[in-house]
Amino acid sequence: MPDGRLRAFINGAPGVLLQLCTGLYTRTGIHPLTDPDRQRILAQTATMARHALRVLGSAYRELDSDASGNLTAEAVERELVFVGLTGMYDPPRPEGKDAVAKCRAAGIRVVMITGDHPDTATAIAREIGIASADDVAIAGFELDKMSDNELRKRVPKIAVYARVTAEHKLRIIRAWKANDAVVAMTGDGVNDAPP
């Protein structure tokens, strides 16, 4: 900043980011972030996600100029001021819906495994024909609570997995294989490779 202070900007999943925030930026200045504020922001996040938007939260923190020697996440990412939400629409490729339809016609069960918010993942999965109106996503933290045997029993009924890690993806694949399924996986990211 012109006066020598530093300003750190942090973006991330709104739920995680809100846990690091103590202030809220408003038209009338910065106010303490209350639990009702957090609930309102999370409700808005869910509304945006249900419209197939990928939602990022943004926050900042003012730092003294002498803080430049300690710019670790632990030192910076606390007592943040929440600024707002950004919703991004990343439309599915047109050939995606056609590919899902061809797989279904060939008797292949297609499921989605993604790092996206559960509501975003469900909306996109419905849009391209992976999920029906009744399907909801199961999140990675829910997978963590399941034993391998429970996951094996439930996996044929789940169409969408959200907020998952590479380790979760491997568990899902192993659960399908434990049900004697032939499994293939495609992906476009580094976390699509087995750990």
What does this protein structure show overall?
The chain is α/β, with parallel strands linked by helices. It is built from 8 helices and 8 strands; from the N terminus they run E-H-E-E-H-E-H-E-H-E-H-E-H-H-E-H. A 5-stranded mixed β-sheet has the order 1-4-5-2-3. A 3-stranded parallel β-sheet has the order 6-8-7. Helix 2 runs parallel beside helix 5 and helix 7 packs across helix 8. It is elongated. The protein starts with 5 loop residues before the first strand and ends in a 17-residue tail after the last helix. The mean pLDDT is 90.
Architecture blueprint of SSEs:
Elements: E1 6-12, H1 14-18, E2 21-26, E3 29-32, H2 35-50, E4 54-63, H3 73-76, E5 80-88, H4 94-105, E6 112-113, H5 118-128, E7 138-139, H6 140-145, H7 148-154, E8 160-162, H8 166-178
Parallel strand pairs: 2-5, 6-8, 7-8
Antiparallel strand pairs: 1-4, 2-3, 4-5
> What's the β-strand tally?
8
Structural class: alpha/beta
Task: Tell me the strand order in the biggest sheet.
Answer: 1-4-5-2-3
Coarse shape: elongated
Number of H/I helices: 8
Distance between the termini: 42 Å
The rounded Rg comes to: 20 Å
What share of residues are in beta strands? 15-25%
Into which percent range does the helicity of residues fall?
A: 25-40%
Biggest sheet character: 5 strands, mixed
Average pLDDT confidence is 90
Low-confidence stretches: none
Helix and strand run: EHEEHEHEHEHEHHEH
